[in-house]
Structure formats: structure tokens, C-alpha cells
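Exam revision sheet. Question 4 asks you to relate a sequence to its structure. Input first:
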Amino acid sequence: MSIDARTPKMGPETTAIAEVDAKETLFARLARTQWLQILIVLIAIVAVFSVMAPDTFPHWGNVRLIIQNASILAVLAVGITFVIITSGIDLSIGSVLVFSGVAAAIAMRTIGGDGWGTAIVGIVVSIAAGLFWGFFNGFVIAKLKVPPLIVTLGTMGIALGLAQILTGGVDIREVPEVLTNSIGYGNVFGTIPIISVIALVVIVIGAIVLHRTRFGLHTYAVGSNEESARRVGVKVDRRLIAVYALTGGLAGLAGIMSLAQFSTTAIAGQTETNLNVITAVVIGGTSLFGGIGTIIGSIVGLFIPAVLQNGFVILGVQPFWQQVAVGAVLIVAVYVDQVRRAQASRGGDVSVWKHLFARRRG
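Answer key, C-alpha cells:
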């Protein structure tokens, strides 16, 4: 008997059923995606505020303000997503942002002038300062085996303390006009803030690196199972140092963006930045246990507190309710993550390891 004779033929009805099953599988998979669930929550919040304040909330001017206010945190969220996927944490990003801004402000004040030459020096110094702190965090975590929570808690205090020592506790307000006018208050097409365009570029590049490169694949592998990652050839220590250095560099970039937007170092203005960003990333579906997370999820999670804060201000609601709402969403997000991990462990989801073994054999 020929192979064709043994193989059942697909009639029109069978094909239709198969297509329905494929669609149902796709829809079921999407329904289980946490960032998509959070996006639905965000859309619902936006809809509620739009109905309650139709003359103010849904207008482009207000939407633009929300996006601009979230831009600096979005840059930080990209780095924190990488860190948490490795099953780590970085509590120092707010302090690193402040220190980087202070270092840049001092460098630009020392050089003097309001031109791009001075501004570029400040940008380079800010990012370099962030890279230094990130590399330091990664080295101590990877090589000295000190837990990330302890290391970054320590550098959080050290970086902020050094920033206060360098400034005497007084904010530096001498910022080149070209920096504030072009980046802080500049617009593209007359309406889109340049600071938001910078954040968008960082988000796109971060998403490509995380989801389309070997670096991203290895980041997931380290967070899924560090020992297994070592066995398939991933240089775990080097990867951890690179991830924390990346996060520090992005904190340095956020530092110069903050300096450009507010025209001051704002030493006391970043006390809750680290917790706000970590909360947003976790709400967006990145697992605190490592190995799971997306850039788009982190950005969606970031806009929930941003929209809540803006909406409460417009409606005249006490801002304390924002903390209550965000805290409740965070608890639900972590619970959903635990349920999802339990289901994945029973189902044996090993897609990351399939890719790694395939690359190794290739």
C-alpha cells in the first residue's frame, strides 16, 4: 500500500475544523499573555477617566503630558526588565540616575558655555557614570557572589550619598540652554516631545536585543536556570555583568534626560523611582523569579500608575488612592505570575533550552 493510500486526506470540513482549532489555540495563548491582560486593564482605566473627564483627560495635550512624564521611567524600565529576567534586582537605579546627573552637571559647569560641545560632554559623562555603577553592581554580584538585593541596596546609598557630598546637598541648576531647549522642551513635528522620542528609540532597541539576539536568549536562560545555562555554554558571569552594566548605562542616560527636562539635578526627587519602575515591570508580566518578561509588557505596566496619577489629579481625587490602586494591581500581577509558573512547570515549557541546544549543536 502506498504512503498516499495510508494517509487520510484532508477534506473541506476537516480543514475548517483544523483552522478553528488553530485559531482557538492562538486566542487561548494570547489570553494567557500577562502583558495583554494588563493592556486590557490599562484600556479600561483610560476609558473610565475619559468618561468621567471628557473635556480634559482624552485630549492630546493631556495624553502628551502622560507620555512625557513616563519617558524617563521607560528608559529605566528597559534595563530593569533585563535584570529581573535574570532573576536579579536593582534598587540603585534612582540613585545612579541622580549621581549621573550630578556628575554631568559638574562637568558641564566646569567647562562652561551653553553650546552643544558642553552638552555632549555632559551626556558622555552621565552615561559613563551610569555604566561604572552598573559594572560595579554586576561584578560584585557575578564574581563575589553577593546577592543582588544586598549589592544594589548598598550602591543605592553610596551613589546618593556621593551625589550629596559632591553638591553639598544643594541642587545644581546651571544647565546649558541647548540641552534644556533641544531635549528637555524640544518637540518633533511641533507636538511630540524629543525626550519621548529618545525613550521610544531605547524601547525599540531594547526589545530587539531582548527578543531577537543571542544576548537576549542568554538573558532568559540565566534567569530560567543559571546552572543549566552554564552547562550549555552560556558565560553566566559575563552575561550578568553586561546586563547590570546595561541597566546602569540606561540609568545614566535617564540622568541626563532628567537634567534636561527639569533644568536641575533634583537630588531629592528620585527617592521612589526604583520602586516605581520595578513595580511597573512586574505589573507588566516580568517574573520576579526570572526567565519570563517582555519589554512591551514593562512599558504597558509603566503606564498604569502614570495614567492613574494623571486621572486622579484631573478628578481632584487624593493622590494617596493611586498608591492603593497600584499596590492592588501589583499583588494581583504577582499572584497571576505564580499561577502561570505553576502551570508552565506542569506543562514542561522548555522553549528557551530548545533554542540554546539547537544553537550549540549548530
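Marking note for examiners. The beta strands are 187-188, 192-193.
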